[in-house]
Design goal:
single chain, 14 helices, 8-stranded antiparallel beta sheet
Length: 566
C-alpha cells in the first residue's frame, strides 16, 4: 500500500514538472528576446571622405569622387565607405536605423556586404543596399554582386521608388532570413527577397551626397542576442611580420633592401587573408590608387586625403616604409584637372598656379611620411614609343614639366627621394634610352630626381620577359649615371604556366636584390582575388599575376622565397 502511494506521489510530481516546463517554454517564446544595440555615431568615422564628426552627429558633404577611364572619358561614381573605421559583424538577423536632418539636396546611405574592389579605371560594386532620400522620394537599390556587361555602370538587381510621409523619420533596414524590409518611421515601405546579399556576416556603411549637405542625427544597429552583433576594426590590426616572410629573408642578405607591394585600403581592412599575406611578408607599401589625383582632389581646391592617410597610418603602425604614387600622371586625373585651359600664355600661367598649388599641397600634407615618391609617372606614349604624352602637365608647362614638378616637390619636402616611373624601360632599348635621358635633362634643369622606377609588368612572357642579363645591364647603366632604381610594379602573367611565372618572378627579384643600384622591389598587388581588368569587349576578367591566389601562396611565392634562401 505504501509503495502504491509513493508511486502516485511521484506521478503527480512528474506531471507538475511537465506543466512547469511547458509554461516555461511558452513564456520564453512570448517574452521579448534580449537585444544588443550599438550606437554607431560613437564609432570611428575620422577617415571617411566627406564626413565630419560633431557633437550633434555626422555631417556629410559631397565629394564628387569619380573614377575616370584611361582615355580620360567616363567618370564612374566612387562614393566613400567607412573602410578604416568601424564596421559591423552580425550573426544573422539585424536592424539598422538612421535619421537624416537638414538635407539640402540628396542623402544617400549604402550598406554593403563587403568593400568594393577599386581598380585603376573602375569600381566593382559589391552586394548590398543603397537608399537615397531626396525630398519625399526614397530610391531603394539592391545590388547582388553580379556584373553586367559594363562594370563601370553597375545595374541594381532591384530598384524602386517609395514616398515617405516624413523625411525626418528614421529609415530602417531589417534583415530576417532571406527578407529585407525597408521602413520609414512606423511605415513599412518595401519587403524584398534579397536578404542573401548580406551573407558574409559583415556590414560596411557609407554616406554620401551628389550635390548637397546633410546631417545624421542618429545611427544604430540592433540584433537579437548578446553575441549576434559586434563592431570590428581593420583586418590588419593584429597581424605582425613573419620571421620567414619575404622582407625578413631579404634583410638577411641586404639589411637596407625593401620588399613591398601595392595595396588598397578595402582588402587591407576587410580581408583577413590579404591583410595577413601583406603584413607578414612585406616591409614597404605603395598606395595602389589612393594617392592618385582623382582620389586626392576630386574637385578643384577640395582634398580628400582620408583613405590615403588611413593606409599611411597602418604602415606607420607596422613599421613599414611608404613610397608615394603619384604626382604628375596622364591618367587618373579628375575632370577639372584634365580640362585646365592652356591655349594662351595667360591661361597657361593661371593653370600653372593651380597645378603647382596642387603639387605643394599634396607634398606638404604627406611630408615626413613618405620615403620616396613618383613625381612623374609614365611620361612617354602608351604605344611604347619615346615621345612624351601631351597631357595637362605638358600643355601647361611644356616639355620641361618634370623639372618644374621636381623643383616644386623639393621645395615642399627636400627629404623625399624622387623618382620618374615608367613601363617598358626594364630592358635596354630606345624607351630606356629616353627615360635615362629625361632624368638627366630634368636634373640638369634643376630637378632632384634620385632614380628611376622600372615597372616590370610582364603581361606576355614571349614578348615582355626580363632576363637576368638584361636587367643586370639596365641596373649597371643607371648606376653608372649616378642614379638608383626601384623595381616598382612587378607582376607576371601565368598565361604560359605557373612554372614560367615563378621563374620570371624569382629572376627579377633576385637580380634586383643583388645589385647595389636596385634599392627596392615592389609587386603590383598582393592577391589575385583583387586582380581584375576589362578586356577589349568590355567584359570583366580576373587576372592571375600575383604571389598569392585566393588566400594561398602561389608557386611564384615559393620560388621567390627560394631565391632569397628561404
Amino acid at each position: 500500500m505504501a509503495e502504491r502511494r509513493q508511486s502516485r506521489v511521484l506521478g503527480m510530481a512528474s506531471a507538475l514538472l511537465v506543466v512547469l516546463l511547458m509554461l516555461g517554454i511558452l513564456y520564453s517564446c512570448s517574452a521579448p528576446k534580449p537585444e544588443k544595440t550599438v550606437d554607431l555615431l560613437q564609432g570611428d568615422w575620422r577617415e571617411v571622405p566627406g564626413i565630419r564628426m560633431g557633437s550633434d552627429g555626422l555631417h556629410v558633404t559631397p565629394t564628387a569622387r569619380r573614377i575616370v577611364e584611361q582615355s580620360g572619358e567616363g567618370g564612374q561614381p566612387n562614393p566613400p565607405l567607412n573602410l578604416a573605421g568601424t564596421h559591423l559583424v552580425v550573426g544573422g538577423e539585424f536592424s539598422l536605423s538612421a535619421t537624416f536632418a537638414n538635407v539640402t539636396a540628396d542623402a544617400s546611405w549604402a550598406v554593403y556586404d563587403r568593400p568594393p574592389v577599386i581598380a585603376d579605371e573602375f569600381r566593382v560594386e559589391p552586394p548590398g543596399l543603397r537608399l537615397t532620400l531626396q525630398g519625399n522620394d526614397l530610391n531603394i537599390a539592391v545590388f547582388d554582386g553580379t556584373q553586367k556587361k559594363d562594370v563601370t555602370k553597375p545595374v541594381p538587381v532591384h530598384e524602386e521608388h517609395q514616398t515617405v510621409k516624413d523625411p525626418g523619420a528614421a529609415l530602417t533596414v531589417h534583415r530576417l532570413g532571406d527578407t529585407l524590409t525597408v521602413s520609414s518611421g512606423s511605415d513599412a515601405l518595401s519587403s524584398l527577397p534579397f536578404g542573401k546579399v548580406f551573407s558574409s556576416g559583415a556590414l560596411w556603411l557609407g554616406f554620401s551626397s551628389d550635390s548637397g549637405d546633410f546631417q545624421i542625427t542618429s545611427l544604430k544597429a540592433v540584433a537579437p542576442g548578446s553575441a549576434g552583433l559586434q563592431t570590428s576594426g581593420a583586418a590588419a590590426s593584429g597581424v605582425k611580420r613573419s620571421a620567414d616572410g619575404l622582407q625578413t629573408l631579404a634583410a638577411r642578405i641586404r639589411p637596407d633592401f625593401l620588399v613591398g607591394a601595392a595595396v588598397a585600403l578595402g582588402p587591407l581592412t576587410g580581408d583577413g587573408d590579404y591583410a595577413r599575406q601583406f603584413v607578414e611578408n612585406f616591409g614597404a607599401l605603395t598606395p595602389e590608387n589612393a594617392m592618385k589625383p582623382q582620389f586626392l582632389s576630386p574637385q578643384q581646391g577640395v582634398y580628400t586625403f582620408e583613405e590615403a592617410d588611413a593606409i599611411l597610418a597602418m604602415a606607420q603602425a607596422k613599421g613599414m616604409v611608404v613610397h608615394g604614387h603619384t604626382i604628375a600622371f596622364t591618367e587618373a586625373m579628375p575632370r577639372w584637372m584634365q580640362e585646365l585651359p592652356a591655349d594662351s600664355d595667360q591661361e597657361r600661367r593661371a593653370s600653372a598656379d593651380v597645378l603647382l598649388d596642387y603639387v605643394t599641397t599634396v607634398t606638404m600634407h604627406f611630408k615626413g611620411r613618405l620615403a620616396s615618391l613618383d613625381v612623374v609617372n609614365e611620361p612617354f606614349d602608351v604605344n611604347q614609343g619615346t615621345s612624351m604624352q601631351q597631357n595637362t602637365w605638358y600643355r601647361v608647362f611644356g616639355p620641361d614639366y618634370p623639372a618644374i614638378i621636381s623643383k616644386a616637390v623639393y621645395a615642399a619636402d627636400p627629404q623625399v627621394k624622387q623618382y620618374i616611373n615608367e613601363n617598358g624601360a626594364d630592358v635596354p632599348g630606345r624607351r630606356q634610352d629616353a627615360l635615362l635621358q629625361l632624368i638627366r635633362d630634368t636634373n640638369a634643369k634643376g630637378g632632384h630626381i634620385y632614380g628611376a622606377g622600372l615597372q616590370a609588368h610582364v603581361y606576355d612572357l614571349e614578348t615582355d620577359a626580363i632576363s637576368a642579363e638584361q636587367l643586370t645591364r639596365t641596373l649597371n647603366r643607371f648606376g653608372d649615371a649616378g642614379l638608383y632604381v626601384r623595381i616598382s610594379e612587378n607582376d607576371v602573367t601565368d598565361g604560359q604556366g605557373t612554372d614560367a611565372q615563378a621563374k620570371q618572378y624569382a629572376t627579377v627579384l633576385a637580380t634586383c636584390l643583388h645589385s647595389p643600384t636596385c634599392v627596392s622591389y615592389t609587386t603590383w598587388g598582393v592577391d589575385d582575388r583583387y586582380d581584375w581588368w576589362i578586356d577589349d569587349g568590355g567584359n570583366l576578367r580576373q587576372g592571375h599575376d600575383h604571389l598569392f591566389n585566393n588566400g594561398r601562396p602561389t608557386p611564384a611565392y615559393d620560388a621567390v622565397k627560394r631565391a632569397m634562401g628561404g
